[in-house]
Specification:
Elements (H helix, E strand, L loop, with lengths): L3 E5 L3 H14 L2 E5 L2 H10 L4 E5 L7 H9 L9 E5 L5 H11 L3 E4 L4 H12 L6 H12 L9 H13 L8 E4 L5 H11 L3 E7 L2 E8 L2 E7 L6 H7 L5 H14 L3 H7 L5 H18 L7 E5 L15 H12 L2 H8 L6 E4 L3 H4 L7 H8 L7 H4 L6 H14 L2 E4 L29 H5 L18 H18 L3 H5 L7 H15 L10 H22 L1 H12 L8 H21 L3 H14 L4 H14 L4 H17 L4 H13 L3 H14 L4 H15 L9
Parallel strand pairs: 1-2, 1-3, 3-4, 4-5
Antiparallel strand pairs: 6-10, 7-8, 7-10, 8-9, 11-12
Length: 694
Amino acid sequence: MSKTILVVEDDRSVQKMLQELLEDEGFHVISERDGDWALRTFESRDVDAIILDILIPVMNGFQVAEKIRHTIKGKTLPIIMISGIYRGVNHRHDAKRKYEVVDYLDKPLDTERLLNVLKDVFSAEYPSPVATQAERAAFDRKAPEAFASRESHAETEEVERKSKEFKKVARRGRLAEVPFPDLLAQFYREKADGALLLKRGKLKKIVYFRQGYPSFVKSNLLNECLGKVMVRERMITEDECEESIQAMKESKRQQGTVLIDMGCISPHNLQYALELQLKTKIFDLFAWQDGEYQYNPKNSAPPTTVSLEDTTAALIYEGVRKRVELTRIREQLGESMEQYVLPSEDPMFRFQDMNLDPEEEKFVARLVGDLTLREIVDLGLDKRTAYQLIYALKAAGMVDFCEEPTREEPPSPPPPRVRQKKAVTPPPVKGRLAESGGVPVPILSDMGRKAKLSPEERGIRERLARQVVETKKLDYFNVLGVSRTAPRDEIRKAYFSLAKQYHPDRLYATASHEIRSLAEELFNLVSAAHDMLVDTQDRARYEAQLQSGDKSVVSSEVSMILTAEGLFQKGEMALRKRDYGKAEEYFRESSRMCPDEGEFHAYLGWAMFQNNPKDEGTVVASRDELSHAISLNPKVDKAYLFLGYIYKAMNYKEMAEHEFEKAIQCNPDCTEALRELRLISQRRKGKKKGLLGR
């Protein structure tokens, strides 16, 4: 029987690192980000150990540990505390004395020490990855119908229906000739938009792409339904899954919201489960050795609250590690064993973000063209990992193979990464506002955005815009940070360092349109500087231009982004002051200047409604504006929240609830949506307080 560890950590990058580390060891992992849900999960789940951060929301780690120790099941439970702040000897001593923790580890974590502590804790019962995988495989063989909600059945029907739209497409082939990892890389190179249908017998999946990144997957396999994924990962029990499906039938709510209301899962873990379900669907395709594919560029990605957020290269590597057999990898690389491995010449492919750990980064840094593949697999990583990594690098186009040795100086290390239902016909408006009396809508308590368009991401958008402005004022020598007498090799080295820093993969694959455009503009500007200065004739002409006083100008598009951001901030201020007319003016102008920025349109729609909430024509226009915002960026939680408030004002209760549900899928910290769902739950149950009221 495998072991389950509860990880309590509010830093998502640390949480993800621990999740991957422990799962590779064979543990089941349940993660929570605050003390309240940590205690709920401890009380309702069978956990074998806890890794507990000190500084977490709601209640700190010391308080959580104290409450756990006062329960019967928690008296002897192994607890490992971690902290990046309380690092003193006294804190370590007090934690061991007061809470009997087995160890107290400083951040950044020494993962080898952590695993050694766990090995001491579990001794002969330390899990085996092979046994855990067999346990998961046995669960996967269970019939899926008991875990499948009506939404799961609707998806299988939708995939069957949509697969007919691919019959006449020209681009098609077989996975035996072009494996799935290679297909992903092809679409990345082409910056493709559209949908890829993959079929193997009766199995069908549709992978949707946005600008070359896979963003969403639909499947006709009930075995990949949300309920079964959550039970397999021990996030809920089979009984809780069955109860939630029954409650869905009675209330017509979504399964995730029902589970939150039941107290079975936190909003953050619902979001994680939805993301994990997408990965389950796409990673299964890496195991397909045969089957056919068809690509339809006209079939665009549906607006979704949750999407795949890893880069293409990172998905390729994770998919290879999870689902591609080592014998198959050896077979694919067999003809290249005596060839030399070197980085791709094209920085766009070379510097993709594969989300490697430090040891893997060191391994890749050694691939400079002076070693054969046969020599490389003995470079320090275990052979299995080395083969998997080389295969993934090759599939992603990050390395090339050549017959003769070469030598290239490795560039500087990269900077830290910046870590981004069926359509329903809108209900009629006529008569609803008068009927409900124009129900007043709450003023938002916090106009800051906490989800995908968080203040941090807005800061990234503004910083990139200003960086483009400043960079465009520089000549190409200053862009690369080299002198006018710099030789070709120095220019090339500077270019590779900057190309790695400004590569679009360093941002979320699902970042907003403006952020992606700005990142690409910076990357292209650095590339243009390199291309100009490494060519002798072009460089001579450029130097003559500089002597004549010719200067670059800032693009009007970048200037508009900066201006639009300023107008947007003024609109927010007007909204706080309830000056809805002025807010509408600012948001309308910012939307005109940046027509592809979904966030701007969302706030425009809300200001329009607030400015004239009882006018039917205005309500229709504001609702259309919000729908347009979602089509541009389905990850803006406030767009769903605003729609929910509008439907609430119109007394469309089920429509309002549905939008509030989608808001918390986008952003588990959307307190306004959680509050509305809590009130709906209270009314439904006839109680003063529901489980959503945390």
